[in-house]
Amino acid sequence: MGKCETATASIGIKILLSELIFQINETNFTLIKEMLKCGFIEDNNGYFNEVYGSIDTFGLSNHFLEFKEHLTNEFKNNGSYHKLKNGIVIPTIDDGCLFDKFLLVPVKQILEIDRWGYDRYGSNCLSRPIDFDLSVNIEKYKEIEKKEIVFILGQNSG
Fold it and tell me: How many degrees, rounded to 5, is the angle at CA 139 between CA 138 and CA 144?
């Protein structure tokens, strides 16, 4: 069957995980859970997203203080992986922990391209006329502080 590689260009929100977790309260609890579910770690070819994906950020406690405490512990004690040529995977925080990484949350997708196959090599590209509105509605995130609106280029292979 092969695998699919997907690249997306979006406009979204960038915020330190530590800042986001610090802001969890009773009123924004559901929104932050949603952000954690659809967001990913800003990671340039490391393994932080693999570790982040292994942490249950959605099905945890329904009490915001327990949720906040659990995530603080998980994000401070997990980072990336060292993957050895012999297949051994070693968890590490040598390059920092998740707590100090940025979460990127796509809000408005601009482009998406898929590439299917077994072992694909070469180039792949897509275009779109610049006749669309680049503004993004972030009204639902108005209570979240210390966020930045950014252009996001994401790639997923699976």
Answer: 80
Q: How far apart are the first and last CA of the chain?
A: 11
> Which structure tokens are listed for 119?
């072992």
**Tens of pLDDT along 54-69?**
887 666 667 889 989 9
Residue 120 has pLDDT above 70, yes or no: no
Region 29-48 average pLDDT: 91
List C-alpha distances in Å: 117 to 3, 6, 134, 153: 6, 12, 32, 22
CA distances from 98 to 18, 43, 73, 107, 111 (A): 8, 10, 10, 22, 28
Distance CA 156, CA 102 (A): 17
pTM of this structure: 0.88
